[in-house]
Amino acid sequence: MPSPANSRPTPAEPLPRCAVCGTGSRQPPFRPSPPEQAPDLDLRPGEPVRSTMARWLQQCPSCGYAAPNITRAHPAAAQAVAAAPFRALMAEATYPPLARRFLGWAHVLEETGALHAAAEATLHAAWVADDLALEDLARHWRLEAVALWRGGPPLDQEQTVRIIDALRRAEAWEDAAATAQGLSRAAAPEAVTQVVDLELQLIAAQDTGRHTVASALPPPARRPHVTHQRLHPQGQARGEGLFDRLRRWLRRG
């Protein structure tokens, strides 16, 4: 017979607590597997990560705070979550629930001064709208993401490429063309130049569709679907340019 000590139940692990309101809730961690397909020109990851957006953010069931990890929060997050604009956003029934989660995170980031990160989260909401064929919302949120990027610190070339793609897909043709032409005149790595050249062709054709990085940086014919191995939805490029990385991964043979 087992001893009494061995028969005791294992204590349950405490539930993660929201850093804003202190509510405990079950929040399974998300650990994405590497994408196997090429990302879009705006760097939305390929499959299988592409279909996991519902798990990119946690959300408190009590106050609505959403973040990659709700047990952490900027000191000003609680004030942003308690304010009327956030509450109105959470109650906006015309927005898909998953989009509201990304927009809520974007709102907190914007209120705490992280404008480029807020742009990224807003673009994620546009991806949700894409998947649901909500074209007007996708267009609106892309333009909001562009405004946030431009309102933040100076942009690097790869962020500018993402702005070009957002403007193109939002049908802001003149702005997209002018931004792309400005970047094409700058000294840029070959990978960035190739993507901008493709964007200029798509803008001239008034093509609002989704295109992948592989369209601009084609891999060898024997490896038509090989893509990057380290892109994460919350990731940021460091050191080597992300488009250069993508080209190297795509051409790996």
Mean pLDDT: 86
Write down how many β-strands occur, each being a DSSP E stretch of 2 or more residues: 2
Low-confidence stretches: 220-239, 249-253
Estimated radius of gyration: 21 Å
What composes the largest sheet? 2 strands, antiparallel
Number of domains: 2
End-to-end Cα distance, whole Å, is: 59 Å
Helical content, roughly?
40-55%
> For the largest beta sheet, what order do the strands appear in spatially?
1-2
* Amount of beta strand: under 5%
Helix/strand-derived class? mainly alpha
Principal-axis shape equals globular
What's the order of the H and E elements? EEHHHHHHHHHH
Number of helices in the DSSP assignment: 10
Describe the protein:
This protein folds into two domains: 63-153, no CATH class; 158-253, no CATH class. It is 45% helix and 2% strand. The protein has helices at residues 77-82, 84-90, 97-111, 115-131, 135-151, 157-169, 173-184, 190-204, 213-216, 242-250, and strands at 58-59, 66-67. The chain has a two-stranded antiparallel ribbon with strand order 1-2. Strand 1 and strand 2 form a beta hairpin. Helix 6 (157-169) runs antiparallel to helix 7. Residues 220-239 and 249-253 have low confidence and may be disordered.
